[in-house]
Amino acid sequence: MSNTNEKTTESPTQPKTPPVTEMLVASLIKTFEPAIAPGPDVEMMTTIDIIDEMAAIADVEKWEVVTALKQSGFTIHHNEAGFFWLLKRK
Fold first, then answer.
1. If you write DSSP's letter for every residue of 61-82 in order, what string do you get?
2. End-to-end distance of the chain based on CA atoms, in angstroms?
3. Coil, strand, or helix at residue 33?
4. Domains assigned to the chain
5. Which of 8-17, 22-31, 65-74, 77-86 has the lowest average pLDDT?
6. pLDDT digits over 15-62, tens only?
7. How many CB atoms lie within 10 A of CB 25?
């Protein structure tokens, strides 16, 4: 017997909405692509830098941002300043 007080979050006729972090990273990769080394048109950004930009739209979790960036082909780099992502402007 089903409980009539249960709320459904998905409709069989509507597609599942992607998490906000995935949508924000999808927007980011329209402007940037992964880079393998610093150079012209390459920005060095920390995860916190990226989260701060995304915070203008929504609160996101750090692990979600890292996972989404890695799944999109971005890699973590390190130098004397610390850890960062290399993003090449398209």
1. -HHHHHHHHHHTT--EEEETTE
2. 55
3. strand
4. 20-89 (1.10.10)
5. 8-17
6. 666 789 889 999 999 999 999 998 999 999 999 999 999 999 999 999
7. 22
Question: 83 by DSSP, 3-state: which?
Answer: strand
Contacts of range 35-41, beta carbons closer than 8 Å, 24 or more positions apart: 35/86, 35/87, 35/88, 36/75, 36/86, 37/86, 38/86, 39/88, 41/88, 41/89
Strands (E), 1-90: 32-34, 42-45, 76-79, 82-89
Reported pTM: 0.75
Both structure tokens of 88: 């090449």
